[in-house]
Design goal:
This protein is an alpha/beta fold. The chain contains twelve helices and 15 strands.
């Protein structure tokens, strides 16, 4: 009996010990000026593997540690592209590296981007942005990111022909602006190096989102557990309340999804709907679901919503209460679904699922009948929010 108990306990202890090791933050030291460039061997979005030796003929090497999701990194994309274009004929190689562990990102950290930080998502970004330089993935081991000491996205390292570090820090002083502002530190460093001159400013602070180290996976697990523990609610919806939802007299972008428990595409897309809500919960965005099931099937609707963890985010509760509402999940109680369609989107043909995005003030800016593409839904949301907050 004692042996059986020990054999049961020790594996658990090993698992706990392993988890504690993963969760422990590791000290990261940024490479010092004058240091040699650490070697790396990383997969690129083009399916090839790249090492430091692949750039041995370059007069200068610019390594930009960046990612897909961070607003600072997104704002810098055009600048990295311009660096490549402006300096490629001068013998300068530009390489982008994503050192984020994409599984160490909570969903609510993805509210400024259409994509996450996986290698597949990187391929999409590189294609859409037209990257003509290597975009490498280091999220699996993070060895290169640790070796260079890249602490944020973006974080730039500029090396001379001997691969000695001559500059590290930020691109310029623009922060999240897509425009060039302040001192162009990277360009100044490159111009000085190519002219055989000393670099005037060798180090700056690299402002941006922190690197998502693998030990942050525990925070993701905790966030998912907290979300799963949230209560799921369902309220009745009459035609007048539907009209008020469509009028959207709030400051939030409102995504409304019409669905039914008997609709296969509705069921298939629902997890992506909830994921989208969780992604944007820190921003002025909410997702409202409206079931067209008969009221007699209310228990069935509630059971499905619970299985999908269609909860109300704690960050949204206040604004919902302010409107005098209790939930973002509804079942329509009217006798005529035409009245529901006319109240929210008269262009809805009645087929399920149907999704609309409504701005503050009640304007429909996006609609889709049938199963939506999650990327296109997020693109519409981010596009609207960027129009309000971008430069």
């Amino acid at each position: 009996m004692r042996l059986r108990l020990l054999s049961a306990v020790y594996p658990l202890m090993a698992i706990a010990t392993s988890a504690s090791l993963i969760a422990k933050p590791e000290p990261v030291k940024t490479l010092a000026i004058g240091a040699d460039a650490p070697d790396f061997s990383l997969p690129g979005v083009d399916g090839k593997n790249y090492t430091l030796k692949d750039y041995s003929e370059a007069k200068a090497l610019v390594l930009v540690f960046t990612c897909n999701h961070c607003p600072d990194a997104r704002a810098a994309r055009g600048k990295v592209i311009a660096l490549h274009e402006d300096y490629k004929d001068k013998g300068v190689a530009v390489v982008a590296i994503s050192g984020n562990d994409d599984k160490a990102l909570r969903l609510d950290e993805l509210g400024y981007s259409v994509y996450g930080d996986s290698l597949e998502d990187m391929k999409n970004v590189a294609k859409e942005e037209g990257y003509k330089f290597a975009y490498l993935y280091d999220g699996l081991t993070q060895k290169a990111t640790k070796a260079y000491g890249a602490v944020s996205t973006p974080h730039v390292f500029v090396f001379d022909a001997e691969r000695k570090l001559r500059y590290q820090g930020r691109i310029d002083d623009a922060r999240r602006s897509r425009a060039n502002k302040g001192t162009p530190y990277v360009r100044e460093a490159l111009d000085a190096m190519l002219a055989g001159q000393p670099v005037k400013t060798e180090t700056t602070r690299p402002f941006g989102c922190s690197t998502k180290w693998s030990w942050k996976r525990d925070a993701v697990a905790e966030d998912n557990a907290n979300w799963k523990a949230l209560p799921v609610t369902l309220e009745d919806l009459d035609t007048e309340t539907a009209k008020s939802l469509a009028a959207n007299k709030t400051e939030k972008l409102r995504v409304i999804n019409f669905w039914s428990t008997t609709c296969g595409p509705c069921i298939a897309e629902f997890p992506e709907l909830i994921e989208t809500y969780r992604r944007f919960q820190n921003r002025p965005v909410e997702v409202i679901t409206i079931s067209s099931d008969p009221v007699k099937d209310r228990a069935k609707v509630e059971k499905f919503l619970t299985s999908q963890q269609a909860a109300l985010s704690r960050r949204t509760i206040g604004s919902v209460k302010k409107e005098g509402r209790k939930s973002n999940n509804y079942i329509y109680t009217g006798d005529n679904l035409d009245h529901l369609a006319e109240a929210i989107d008269a262009k809805w043909n009645g087929a399920l699922p149907h999704t609309v995005i409504i701005t503050p003030g009640g304007k429909v800016i996006w609609r889709h009948n049938g199963r939506f593409d999650a990327v296109e839904l997020r693109r519409a949301i981010v596009g609207y929010l960027d129009g309000l907050t971008g430069e």
